[in-house]
Amino acid sequence: MKAAVMGYGTIGSGVVEVLNINHDSITKRAGEAIEVKYVLDLRDFPGDPIQNKIVHDYKVIAEDPEIGMVVETMGGVEPAYTFVRAMLEAGKHVTTSNKALVAEKGAELIALAKEKNVNFLFEASVGGGIPIIRPLNSCLTADVIEEITGILNGTTNYMLTKMSVEGSEFADVLKDAQDKGYAEKDPTADVEGFDACRKIAILTSLVCGQQVDFSDIHTEGITKISATDIKYAKAMGKAIKLLATSRKVGDSYCAMVSPCMLPQEHPLYPVNDVFNAIFVHGNVLGDAMFYGSGAGKLPTASAVVADMVEIAKFKDTNLPMEWRPEKLELADYKMVTNRFFVRTKADEAAVKNAFGAVEFVAAEGVNGELGFVTEEMTEAAYEEKAAKLADILQMIRVK
Amino acid sequence: MKAAVMGYGTIGSGVVEVLNINHDSITKRAGEAIEVKYVLDLRDFPGDPIQNKIVHDYKVIAEDPEIGMVVETMGGVEPAYTFVRAMLEAGKHVTTSNKALVAEKGAELIALAKEKNVNFLFEASVGGGIPIIRPLNSCLTADVIEEITGILNGTTNYMLTKMSVEGSEFADVLKDAQDKGYAEKDPTADVEGFDACRKIAILTSLVCGQQVDFSDIHTEGITKISATDIKYAKAMGKAIKLLATSRKVGDSYCAMVSPCMLPQEHPLYPVNDVFNAIFVHGNVLGDAMFYGSGAGKLPTASAVVADMVEIAKFKDTNLPMEWRPEKLELADYKMVTNRFFVRTKADEAAVKNAFGAVEFVAAEGVNGELGFVTEEMTEAAYEEKAAKLADILQMIRVK
């Protein structure tokens, strides 16, 4: 089976590397050798073994009948979308690691692949090397999924872990993450939660079988998390994690991305550094969790190549995937209940006046403010009560 | 699609229950309704809604052309094997939760299913509700799996957790587990590691693609673990878990079941109570872990029903599965290296004379003996050195 790789960046070159490293075992699993015939990139790579495979025009790939599958690792919606559509139209299987593309165009590309009797696979788009797309699609099918919650962004998890271990502030840790190459020069997509938001949109779409628009998801990042917040979390025996979560509410789901405090007994509590994990609660399965490397060249490429193996195994079969284009109207996140950790400059009487019964928390070395945890209430109720309290310094949801 | 359930015990009745509870979502995922037409059992169930579906002769099922898939939840090799073979021979898909059957006859039944262009699936045979069989078979296919290590038995994990939390002895905890229904009256299969042994044999077969005989796997249970061992483990910041593990050694694997001490940073460390988890290390993926309910009526039934959904989705397609009947000669476990925790009545000089440099460990309230951890060495080297030391009270491998 001949393949083409579109985009020879970190993941694309990782795909070529994994196909080389594990050539024999992959051939055995796929039932035949998978050979990369073309690599599409704007650049040339003189001296690289793939230089003679470089093409600059995607039509060369689309029009070559020898090409059975195409890997898309360019990132971003355009021109990836135009290229991927052309490949599917030409009857070629596609696998992608591109969460932006999948979140925005997933349902449409799945439908097009079905029409053409090929496959559009995207295991690497969420959770890097962690198998989660195929398990949701073909393993957790006996359940109604009542909750799916993930640590889906390695950069922010690395930063929060480091803040927790070292007691350092956000800005310092961001600089360190940038120096180490874990965070990009413009870290907005990671630290503001936009990356995690697209990923939970994809997972929610697979869970409900309909299109979930990421722009409908309430998203908060970690830029306001401080060393003081971490001190409180530790005093409470909890860890602050950026969680992307969907909970079933009636016939819909409520999705949100925000920092949360997790108790030690939660399966996601020990997930540290650049690792990702996805927690799932099914109505008959109970709790399950999938853990692994959520990013990185080879782990992500491992998931892409596993898709290529599936494509080789099922080259004449469209593998059913439940993600229809009809949009799901998400439930209003303000109706979801949580407990809320709050820091304020106000006094105890003012806190009790606004929130009623709360649990006050002391953190070592923190003075001149109060920290407390509310009872369980909806976001809407929280906002109403919080409006009655002056000088709120911070609010973090508590699981 | 009409189905039959063979064995109306805990899992079999759970399957019927899950099909009822989630009828609508399962129908959507499967593409059609799955209706249970027969339940095979020796007993009758007067008053049970399935009473009018009870049959006592498996041939009624095998000979009914309306039956497309059969669930086997009887347990044990015979008569399950005879019945399952007959169903596959009759061109019916089969799913089973029966680890004994799969460990012993898996390769043969997979080959027979392929010949008949049907499927023989067994997601529930390892890890209960945790998706692991399908992920190994269709997600981790780009990797050479260098290690697979599981907490695969909920009974023993519950017992070890309780011993750790309460400081109690094995015999007391066993009685509690039996009272709670977590351990059977004859607990041998669980506490001696035989159950975990069959499961790691299945996982290793899937990882290497060949038949691994469970009787070749060195297996130690938890019956000799004492409250004193737990004290030492805590002093070292470690947890004692019954691990079933396979590590790649050259072209083969070395498999073993034994209690081990795990450090806090190991992904399996926080897996407590009746939960199961499977840790996988791939050569390009790195570390991954699958966590969830390893036993129990509904979680296990969830995995069986997920197989039924796959069968409905692929009713005319044999899903490729890499598990050939050729036997894999396992590598000798005595060549695998570990560090070893040892308790002895001998003195320091004797310990150093036998083992050279070791790390002595003190545990609160333990007197009149020495505890130490050796350097990393093979099992063979350990045995040679241990033979030089009198009065060894305990040996536990350290990860």
UniProtKB/TrEMBL annotation, chains A, B:
Pathway: Amino-acid biosynthesis; L-threonine biosynthesis; L-threonine from L-aspartate: step 3/5; Amino-acid biosynthesis; L-methionine biosynthesis via de novo pathway; L-homoserine from L-aspartate: step 3/3. The keyword Oxidoreductase applies. Residues 7-123 form the Aspartate/homoserine dehydrogenase NAD-binding domain. It is an enzyme of class 1 (oxidoreductase). It catalyses: L-homoserine + NADP(+) = L-aspartate 4-semialdehyde + NADPH + H(+). Its EC number is 1.1.1.3. InterPro entries: Asp/hSer_DH_NAD-bd, HDH, HDH_cat, HDH_CS, NAD(P)-bd_dom_sf. Belongs to the homoserine dehydrogenase family. This is Homoserine dehydrogenase. It comes from Roseburia amylophila.
